[in-house]
Structures are given as structure tokens and as C-alpha cells.
Design a protein that fits this description.
By secondary structure, the chain is of the alpha+beta class. It has seven helices and 15 strands. The strands form three sheets. Strands 7, 8, 9, 10, 11, 12, 13, 14 and 15 form a nine-stranded mixed sheet that branches. Strands 3-2-5-6 form a four-stranded antiparallel sheet. Bound molecules: uracil.
Length: 242
Amino acid sequence: MSGTARLDRLLANLGYGSRNEVQQLVRRGAVVLDGVAAEDASKRIPITDDLPERMQVNGAPLDPLPGVALMLHKPVGVTCSHKEAGSLVYDLLPSRWRRRDPALSTVGRLDKETSGLLLLTDDGALLHRIISPKAHVAKHYVATLARPLQGDEAARFASGTLMLEGEDKPLAPAIMETLSPTSARLIITEGRYHQVRRMFAAIGNHVALLHRDRIGALTLPADLGSGHYRAMNAADIAAIFA
Ligand code: URA
């Protein structure tokens, strides 16, 4: 983000409240820029990357400016949706972030019972760059299976002819590596509905546990605990496309 923005609009778009509410915040002296309480909420201020270090609201650093990209370690049992019942991935972020405009969205989805690396961003162009079929971004999953592998799975997944139930276009070739008699790494470049579970179902097995640990060359950091998130830096984003 660059250029200038009215202070009240910037704060309202970051979820700090309605225009009226943020004007009250400013009147109370709760918005400080470069050590000085802001006085005029209608004033335009330059938007620079260092604003979160230079501005405090209620004594805390300003939230990240638009252009946020996050990696989240999604736990089992939370849903990638803005409005379904039950626990949502957005509940794992600060509650104010739910009122941001532009809104944060997940980059694709993991189903409720799947854990692992999930990306979120408010940058629509980045989101589309990652999920575009043309980008061929490889998504790596570790699947724990209900039944032992038979030995022919990797060839069937690599064939480019496997059909999922209810579909009429075969799957693109995928890579499977055996990890144990009942677990495998599956690397896919498509993003069809419940794809990994349906791929194993199509060959007569059943996925008991599913975890995504890598997107492109970006791996889920070992020190990012389940339910926790972290901002991505430029190198992380480059790794997705590497
Ligand atoms: N495949 C699935 O079955 N579930 C996911 O969440 C992702 C890929």
C-alpha cells in the first residue's frame, strides 16, 4: 500500500470501528503518530510500510496494512469459511481482523478434518496467482490410510487417467511416495473438492488423517504450532512459486 489515506478511513478499513468510532478514538488522543497524538481524523497521512512501527492505537502498534499474507497451521476441526457454524479459521486471528476491508481470505481451502499449512491474504492478485491452474503450484499432503497400500497406487496416480467419482475430466498426474505401509505423501497441482480423500477413495482406500505440510517450496515451519499464524515475508511468497 502506498500514497495517502484519510486517517479515519485507514483505521475504519483496518477494523478499528466505524468512521464515527475511529473519530472518537482520535478525539480521545488514542491514535499516536511519531509520538504525537493525532488531532484531526480527516487529515490525509502518507501510507508507508513503516506506519505500523510509527503509529500506535490505544498504546499498541497499528495492525498490518493492507497487503497482508499469512501462513497458518490449521488445526483439525476448524472450517475455512467466513460464515459457517462452529470454529472458523478466522477465529484464530485477532477479532478486529474480521472487520478489515479488504477482507482476509484463505488461499484455497483445507477441509474441516485436514490440518496443516494454510495461507491467507487480503491481496486478491496474490491469491489468484497461487490458485491459478496455470501456476501449477504443488501442494504436498501426508495421508494416513485406513488400509495398507497395495503397491500400484503411485502408478495409478501418475497415469493422468484416474477419474474421480462424479467427474468427467481425468486428474492431472500426481506424485505419490510411500512413507510406511499405511501412509503416503501425495503431491498434487490441482485443487479439486476434497481431492486427496477422493483420490484414495477412487482406488479403494480411505484417508483417516490428512495433513498439508508444503505449498511449492514453502514448508510449514516446525516451530509454528497448531492454531498459530505468522506473517509471510517476500522470501516465503517467492518460495510458493519456486
Ligand atoms: N484434499 C482433501 O481431501 N482435503 C483437503 O483439505 C485438501 C486436499
